[in-house]
Each structure stands twice: as structure tokens, then as C-alpha cells.
Amino acid sequence: MSSITHFILALIVVVFLALLICQDRKSIHINYIVQLLIIEILLAYFLLHSTVGLVCIKEVTELFKKLLGFAGQGADFVFGGMSEKNLAFFFLRVLCPIVFISVVIGILQYIKVLPYVIRIIGTILSKVNGMGKLESFNAVSSLIFGQSENFIAYKNILSNISEKRMYTMSITAMSTTSMSIVGSYMTMLDAKFVVVALVLNMFSTFIVLLLVNPYDLSASEDLDLINFYQRQNFFEMLSEYILTGFKIAIIIAAMLIGFIALLAAVNGLFIAIFGVSFQNVLGYCFYPFAWIIGVPKHEALQVGMIMAIKLVSNEFVAMMELQNISTKLSRYSKSILSIFLVSFANLSSIGIISGAIKGINERQGRVVTRFSMKLIYCSTLVSILSSAVAALVLS
């Protein structure tokens, strides 16, 4: 089957699954969906095949390599060169850099670079996606600040946001990732596909949302630009972002310990009772999706297994599993899977997002909790669509 056929099949499946839970199909704007899909495919081709696109990706990759190098110096000073001896390598080289990158984000926000970038890109996106400015700004701010910290920027207006718009904002936060964690992803995946996934996920999110949660806004309903900048002195800001970065690193470490241990226990239980591991069972569940997006049939089971692990645990656990079997997969399959893994679309993110919103506004937190399973359903469709676009362009 050709790559174009696989892509059309994947697109049909994503649209069908999205429409199954859409409650207002008459409000769907097909023209915006087609427009976004064309832009997404063109951007994927530009980033993966054009000389300029490849240079852009190389520059971004080199930037993060330098940032990771600076972050490593801080970790080596505190932990006495343990990483050079391959001691606690994952914590020191993958998680600790989050602290420094968080500081860089804080400085860029303090000097008001990020607020302008968010407004400019958000305004451009609002012209092509048919959504409100708030939704477009949220897509960019989620990518920069992360799924929990992002909602702090909207705390003054959160109580006035409708349920449909809260759903859109929550899906956007779960379907992307945070710039503070991107460097960590690059230590585990090909950096090129991490960068590409960030772009594709944003457009795939808009497409899925236009299918699942369509609504029209009048000019008066659309909210004004959000003030992302809070007045505080420079060293107060540094302390806040350093502690935020370290908190994120510790949370990820705790989640990994818990989920990896739980996965091992469930695997042992399944093998003892059924003679087959839980991961293999999950692999069979996701096998059709892996094949549909273009993974070769003989590799689809292993790829499907890792896709499922990401859903039930988190992306870091899945990335480690990919590293364990990377020699058994073709570069094409690893590329598609890498795109799929770069997002917060997993069960643990539901608690993070609802908890973050509940901490700001109790009522809206309960609203998000009510449609928690719908969040994971749609964010997984986003990952499938992004992977299908990548598979089409990479073939």
C-alpha cells in the first residue's frame, strides 16, 4: 500500500473517531480544516526536506545542545561529576537540564520577549484556524510554559471562560509539550523529529478540535490579549523559575519510578496468569493504528506497544522503551514513532491539568475533570494525525 493511501486511510480514521464524539456537527467549518491540513503538510515537507528547513532544525538543535551543555556544568558541580561515570545518568543528563532551561524561559519572559512572540504567532494562527485569539494564544503559550504553568497566565479571566473554550484550552495543553522539557526529549530521540513534532502537533490539535469541539465566536465574545508578564524583580523571577524547573524534574522522576514499577508488576501478573506480558496485549490494541499511519506490518506490533505505553504511563517511559528496541526498528518506523511520542497525551496528564486549573479556579477545575477521558481520547487523535503527516512526508 502506498504512503498516500496510508495517509488517506489514517485521515479517514481520525475524522471518523473525532466525529463520533462531536455534538454539533453543523458548526464544523470544513474550509478551515482543509486549510490547516494543507499548511501542516507543507510545513512538514519544508522542515524535513528543504535546505532552509533542515538548516532551521539544525540551528534549533545546536541551540539546545549548548543549553544542555551549560545545564550539565551546573549538575556536575552539585553532583561531583557523577554523570561522567554514568551514575544516575538519566536524572543528571535528562531531568536536571529542565532547571536551567526553565530559567532561560523565565529570563525571556522577564525581558518581555516571550509575551510578544506569543501575541504575534497567536494572532497569525487565529487568522488561519478560524478560532478565537484566546485559543491561538493558548496554543503558543502551552508550548512555551507547559500544561500546568500555562493556565496561570489566564487566572484573571479563567472564571469567565465557557465550558467549550475550557475544553479547547485543555486539549491544546495536553497535545503539545513544554519548551523546558524539549531538551530532555532530544537526549532520547532524534532532535530533528522533536522539533518537527512541536510544529505538527499544534496544527493537528486545531484540526481535531475543529472536528470535535466546533463553535463560533462573536467579536465581543473573543477575549482581549492576555498580560503574560507579572511584575517582580529579576532575582525573585530567577528563584521562582529555578524552583519551578526543579519541581518539574522531581515530578517526572517520581512519575517514572511509579509507572515503571507498576508496569513491571502488571507485566509479571499478566505473564503469570495469561503467559503473555501486558505490553504485548497493549501492542495488539494499537497495532491497527500503527499500521494505518504507515508503519511496516512486521514492525507495527512493537510500535503499537510503545504507543500504548505512552498512553497508559507517560512519554518518558515510552521513549526509554523505544531506546531498548531501537535496533529492531527501521529508521522510518522510529521517525514516525518519535513524532507520536512528543506530547503530553497520556493518562497522568489528566490529573496534572485538572489539578493546575483547580488550584486557580475550583469550578473550572471540576469542569475539566468531567471531560477528562475525552481529553485523552482527542489528544491521542492529535498524535496519530501528526504521525500520519510525518509518515506521508518521510516516505
Task: Give the key terms.
18 helices; mainly alpha; single chain; 395 residues; globular
Structure description:
It is a single chain. With 395 residues, this protein is an all-alpha fold. The chain has one domain (3-394). Helices cover 75% and strands 0% of the residues. The chain has helices at 3-20, 30-49, 51-79, 89-95, 97-110, 113-129, 133-145, 163-175, 179-186, 191-212, 234-274, 278-292, 300-312, 315-325, 331-341, 347-360, 362-370, 372-394. The longest helix is centred in the middle third of the chain and has 41 residues, at 234-274.
Q: Which helices and strands, and how do they pair?
A:
Layout: H1 3-20, H2 30-49, H3 51-79, H4 89-95, H5 97-110, H6 113-129, H7 133-145, H8 163-175, H9 179-186, H10 191-212, H11 234-274, H12 278-292, H13 300-312, H14 315-325, H15 331-341, H16 347-360, H17 362-370, H18 372-394
Helix pairs in contact: 1-18, 2-3, 2-10, 2-18, 3-5, 3-9, 3-10, 5-9, 5-11, 6-7, 7-8, 8-10, 8-18, 10-15, 10-18, 12-13, 13-14, 13-15, 15-18, 16-17, 16-18
Quick overview:
With 395 residues, the chain is mainly alpha-helical.
Annotation field: number of helices: 18
**Strand content range:** under 5%
When the domains are counted, the total is 1
| Distance from first to last alpha carbon | 12 Å
Secondary-structure class: mainly alpha
Roughly how many Å is the radius of gyration? Answer: 20 Å
Q: Report the sheet with the most strands, covering strand number, pairing sense and barrel closure.
A: none
Shape: globular
Number of strands: 0
In helices, the fraction of residues equals over 70%
Low confidence ranges: none
Mean pLDDT: 85
What are the secondary-structure elements, in order, as H or E? HHHHHHHHHHHHHHHHHH
